[in-house]
């Protein structure tokens, strides 16, 4: 029983990590209909920002998070303004190619700058956790879990209630009408991208404390984010949280009761099942074209 | 028109003459190598690149490879196989056909070298690797493939036999590892030697390299509470497992890795969390090895630090050892560039006869290409330093056992 509860907790915490780095992907897809292939590179840059600030200046990883967010947000804003705005209304293939190109550029630039070394942020409290009975909970992951929930609800609230959020929704629902009522679509897109990038950068900073980071880590993260978002429903913001938690728990249970190899395969088996049976995602609120 | 034709003719002639002039001036050994410079083995591959560079620069500083009294400098050509075996094979084919290199050096990683050595065998290029040791590499009846490392299953011997020095002797072990060629064989080796030592294996699992959730795996291991944990790993897996052990708050009395902790990044990035970790090695700077080129093992260690700001990993010294015996064989046979196929056949035959003492230790290849002589060394991280703890006659310090639980560490 203890093992089951531990697996459940581990799964939920891992799910929190998945959700944290997938919600930006979902936001960008939901508003702009763009599958952002360089999403993983945004995570990588967020992670490296934290890493460098910690290793060069000794700044605590948690204090570096706002800087990671800002760095990645600015980068996202610039890429969106300069590049993606030009292809946002083109057929999807063009935007795939465009974001794939950015993925290659960012990953290889990082490789050139930082070499292929594996790095990790090890602080005095790295890996430290607390126990409730036989259950162990690592603190850094718990913090990520809480942040994932907060950002999900934050963005959800922002889109539903805030004036700017409403403009973003309007732009995503009907571009022409939004334009007619005076919304600057391009600006909305760039700010959405910056927002999505910011929460992705935040997740990158967080994961650098418990995962190994390296310049080419991006693509696997993009793939997982894609799976998470499909599970929860493409473009439905709370979907990333639901998809992430679901994936985390299923993986942990598979790893615990079957084997670890299957826990990796299960991600794609789930993706396949959901795409065939329920393309709108588990809760059925995703966008399907 | 006539003038134009003349100019054209002159250009063509210059074009024909210039390369031959430059060739005549700089007869070099053009030596190629496909290595994983990026991807999952990127760090490991770059170490081997450093090793070959160190070897070539040391030789070039003396004018180059000396054949019949004449010096021929070394020109190295590195290609990045992106940690992909198919790419590695493709690049070795390119080195042999398009680049027409004189010699080929071995890459890193058993999967890649397995694929690449099939191509070098086809083109009759001897390939000595210091970064691949899976048993399967030696079971193909190849004549042109050699390795300065021992076989993977034997490489981890020291990590298990170390229990002979421990009292009370551990009774149970968990063995985990990634499911690729080298690491799964290392796990087999762990299993065999554990059985010999009378240690019961209470848990065994192989997992894919792409695994994200190490915590679930290690919670299962924790549940079994083995005395020792043996891990078939490369650097990234070793980092992940160590981090996860701390997150699940489990420290076995001894944790040993097949590869990873000897790469300098391991101690650098994990800091104090790397203490007590044991790893297999095939070379250590305190061993009494020496040769005429690099001096003693300790001198090599120090010179390496001067050049790269870090000490060499045993795989790097194994790579240097391989390059060195190939160089000596060339000097002995009097082969000069450009190296022809007939020369390479002679070189292969000579390599099978080699029995040399190098800074890496004794190199003598068995008929299957594996190095016959390799002590089962185990090192442990003690106070941030890799310390040789096994075998007894090479040990700098006794092994620290049992490892301190995470919560009792400062």
How would you describe this structure to a colleague?
- The complex is a heterodimer of chains A (289) and B (410).
- Chain A is mainly alpha-helical and 289 residues long.
- Chain A has one domain: ABC transporter involved in vitamin B12 uptake, BtuC, CATH 1.10.3470.
- In chain A, 75% of the residues lie in helices and 3% in strands.
- Chain A is built from 11 helices and 2 strands; from the N terminus they run ααααββααααααα.
- Chain A has a two-stranded antiparallel sheet with strand order 1-2.
- In chain A, β1 and β2 form a beta hairpin.
- Chain A starts with a helix and ends in a 12-residue tail after the last helix.
- In chain A, 54% of the residues are buried.
- Chain B is of the alpha/beta class and 410 residues long.
- Chain B has 2 domains: 201 residues, 3-Layer(aba) Sandwich (Rossmann fold); 161 residues, Response regulator (Rossmann fold, 3-Layer(aba) Sandwich), CATH 3.40.50.2300.
- Helices cover 42% and strands 20% of the residues of chain B.
- Chain B is built from 13 helices and 18 strands.
- In chain B, α2 packs across α12, α3 runs parallel beside α4 and α12 packs across α13.
- About 2% of the residues of chain B have low confidence.
- Chains A and B meet through α1, α10 and α11 of A and α2, β9, α8, α9 and α10 of B.
Summarize the SSE layout with pairings.
The complex is a heterodimer of chains A (289) and B (410).
Chain A: H1 2-32, H2 39-57, H3 61-87, H4 92-114, E1 129-132, E2 135-138, H5 139-161, H6 163-173, H7 175-180, H8 185-207, H9 218-232, H10 237-257, H11 260-277
Antiparallel strand pairs in A: 1-2
Helix pairs in contact in A: 1-5, 1-8, 1-9, 1-10, 2-3, 2-4, 2-8, 2-9, 3-8, 5-6, 5-8, 5-10, 6-8, 9-10, 9-11, 10-11
Chain B: H1 2-25, E1 29-35, H2 42-61, E2 65-67, E3 70-72, E4 74-80, H3 85-97, E5 103-105, H4 110-122, E6 127-129, E7 145-147, H5 152-155, H6 157-161, E8 172-178, H7 181-196, E9 200-207, H8 214-224, E10 228-232, H9 235-247, E11 254-257, H10 264-270, E12 278-281, E13 290-291, E14 295-296, H11 297-308, H12 314-333, H13 341-353, E15 355-358, E16 361-364, E17 377-382, E18 385-390
Parallel strand pairs in B: 1-4, 1-5, 6-7, 8-9, 8-10, 10-11, 11-12
Antiparallel strand pairs in B: 2-3, 12-17, 13-14, 15-16, 17-18
Helix pairs in contact in B: 2-12, 3-4, 12-13
């Amino acid at each position: 029983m203890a093992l089951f509860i531990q697996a459940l907790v581990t799964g939920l915490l891992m799910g929190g990590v998945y959700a944290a780095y997938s919600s930006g992907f979902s936001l960008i897809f939901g508003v702009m209909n763009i599958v952002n292939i360089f999403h993983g590179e945004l995570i990588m840059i967020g992670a490296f920002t934290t890493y460098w600030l910690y290793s060069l200046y000794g700044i605590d990883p948690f204090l570096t998070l706002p800087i990671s967010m800002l760095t990645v947000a600015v980068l996202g804003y610039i890429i969106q303004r300069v590049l993606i705005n030009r292809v946002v209304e083109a057929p999807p293939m063009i935007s795939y190619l465009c974001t794939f190109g950015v993925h290659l550029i960012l990953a290889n630039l990082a490789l050139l700058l930082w070499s292929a070394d594996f790095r990790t942020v090890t602080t005095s409290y790295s890996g430290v956790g607390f126990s409730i009975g036989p259950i162990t909970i690592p603190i850094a992951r718990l913090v990520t879990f809480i942040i994932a929930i907060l950002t999900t609800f934050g963005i959800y609230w922002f889109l539903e209630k805030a004036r700017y959020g409403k403009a973003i929704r309007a732009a995503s629902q009907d571009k022409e009408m939004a334009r007619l009522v005076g919304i600057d679509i391009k600006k909305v897109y760039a700010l959405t991208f910056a927002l999505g990038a910011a929460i992705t950068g935040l997740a990158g900073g967080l994961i650098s404390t418990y995962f190994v980071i390296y310049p080419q880590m991006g693509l696997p993260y993009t793939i997982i984010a894609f799976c998470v978002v499909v599970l929860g429903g493409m473009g439905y913001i709370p979907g990333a949280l639901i998809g992430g938690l679901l994936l985390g728990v299923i993986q942990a249970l598979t790893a615990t009761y079957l084997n670890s190899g299957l826990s990796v395969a299960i991600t794609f088996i789930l993706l396949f099942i959901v795409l065939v049976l329920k393309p709108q995602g588990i809760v059925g609120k995703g966008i399907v074209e | 028109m006539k003038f134009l034709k003349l100019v054209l003719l002159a250009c063509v002639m210059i074009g024909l003459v210039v390369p031959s002039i430059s060739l005549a001036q700089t007869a070099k050994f053009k030596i190629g190598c496909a290595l994983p410079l990026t991807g999952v083995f990127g760090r490991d591959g770059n170490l081997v690149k450093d090793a070959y560079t160190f070897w070539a620069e040391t030789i070039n500083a003396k004018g180059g490879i000396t054949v019949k009294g004449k010096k021929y400098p070394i020109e190295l050509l590195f290609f990045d196989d992106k940690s992909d075996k198919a790419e590695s094979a493709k690049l070795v084919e390119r080195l042999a056909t398009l680049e027409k290199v004189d010699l080929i050096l071995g890459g890193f990683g058993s999967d890649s070298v397995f694929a690449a050595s099939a191509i070098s065998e086809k083109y009759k290029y001897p390939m000595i690797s210091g970064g691949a040791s899976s048993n399967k590499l030696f079971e193909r009846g190849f004549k042109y493939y050699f390795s300065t490392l021992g076989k993977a299953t034997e490489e981890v011997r020291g990590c298990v036999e170390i229990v002979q020095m421990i009292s009370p002797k551990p009774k149970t072990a968990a063995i985990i590892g990634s499911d690729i060629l080298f690491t799964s064989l290392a796990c087999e080796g762990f299993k065999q030697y554990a059985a010999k030592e009378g240690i019961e294996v209470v848990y065994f699992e192989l997992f894919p390299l792409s695994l994200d959730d190490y915590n679930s795996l290690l919670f299962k291991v924790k549940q079994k509470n083995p005395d020792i944990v043996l891990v078939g790993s490369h650097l990234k897996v070793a980092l992940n497992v160590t981090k996860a052990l701390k997150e699940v708050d489990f420290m076995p009395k001894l944790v040993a890795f097949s590869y990873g902790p000897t790469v300098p990044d391991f101690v650098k990035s994990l800091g104090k969390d790397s203490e007590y970790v044991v790893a297999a090695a095939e070379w250590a700077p305190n061993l009494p090895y020496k040769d005429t080129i690099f001096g003693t093992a300790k001198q090599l260690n120090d010179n390496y630090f001067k050049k790269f700001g870090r000490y060499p990993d045993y795989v790097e010294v194994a790579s240097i050892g391989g390059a060195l015996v190939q160089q000596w064989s060339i000097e002995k046979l009097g082969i000069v560039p450009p190296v022809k196929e007939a020369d390479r056949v002679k070189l292969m035959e000579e390599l099978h006869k080699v029995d040399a003492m190098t800074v890496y230790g004794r190199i003598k290849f068995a008929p299957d290409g594996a190095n016959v002589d390799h002590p089962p060394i185990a090192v442990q991280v003690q106070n941030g330093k890799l310390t040789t703890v096994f075998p007894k006659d090479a040990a700098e310090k006794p092994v620290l056992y049992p490892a301190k639980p995470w919560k009792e560490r400062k």
